[in-house]
Amino acid sequence: MTRTQTPASFQTTFAFQFSNNSSNLPNQGGNGLTFMIVPDEFTVGRPGPWLGMMNDACQEDYKAVAIEFDTRQNPQFGDPNDNHVDKTNRPRPPNKPRRFTFSEISTATRGFSEVEILGSDARGMYYRGKLPNGCQVAIKRLSPEFLNSQQGLDRLRILKEIGDMSRVRHPNLVPIRGWCHDNRETMIVYDFYTNGSLDKWLFGVGVLPWTRRFRVINDVAEALSSLHSKQLRS
């Protein structure tokens, strides 16, 4: 893509049909379709009533234009009915990355219950959690051993890296919901994905064919390249 700084006009023609067979099941089925013009290629929006238009990492001055074909009425967005087309200015999802308290994290993980443990690595333990709004999250609790190590002692640098990462948008990076630096604890809150960790898929017997493994390698390389281009580390 070449940036010319010059507006360009275009036109297109298409035809499609919605078939929402789950209209009687409010928690299932799609909400519609959006055609969107954005200033970058890494915008990955949230599903559901936001129709994939925006994500939590978008800055306040993020410019975008979207045409939505909506099959559900969401009063909070001013939808006129459950079957409309609109040039939309839909609000950004109300869960931009923020600071959590230790009490909030403890409640979400049921007191860091062993039942909620997802795994661990050299830096700490991962827990599954549930926020008051019902969203499931994965919480990385940095261990005392790491925080007392030479790398972990620079708390300001760690918090700066977390803040920088929370503003990164890329389809191959797990979004950061927030962080906690409270009660001598440092934790990171991520979106939760139900398919498990990558190592279980890579090292499980006969789980992923090599064609899929090459795709994983390519996706990881693209994410790392994006981080390095922004002078960030994984």
UniProtKB/TrEMBL annotation:
Keyword terms: ATP-binding, Lectin, Membrane, Nucleotide-binding, Receptor, Signal, Transmembrane, Transmembrane helix
SUPFAM superfamilies: Concanavalin A-like lectins/glucanases, Protein kinase-like (PK-like)
Transmembrane region(s): none
This protein's record includes keyword rRNA-binding: no
GO biological process annotation, one example: defense response
One Pfam family hit: Lectin_legB
Membrane topology: Single-pass type I membrane protein
Listed GO CC annotations: membrane
InterPro entries (UniProt xref): ConA-like_dom_sf (IPR013320), Kinase-like_dom_sf (IPR011009), L-type_Lectin-RKs (IPR050528), Legume_lectin_dom (IPR001220), Prot_kinase_dom (IPR000719), Ser-Thr/Tyr_kinase_cat_dom (IPR001245)
Principal location: membrane
Subcellular location: Membrane
Domain Protein kinase, residue spans: 112-234
Keyword Kinase appears in the UniProt entry: no
Residue ranges of the region described as Disordered: 72-98
Record-linked Gene3D superfamilies: 2.60.120.200, Transferase(Phosphotransferase) domain 1
Domain of life of the organism encoding this protein: Eukaryota
GO molecular function: ATP binding; carbohydrate binding; protein kinase activity
Recorded family membership: In the N-terminal section; belongs to the leguminous lectin family. In the C-terminal section; belongs to the protein kinase superfamily. Ser/Thr protein kinase family.
Protein name per Swiss-Prot or TrEMBL: Protein kinase domain-containing protein
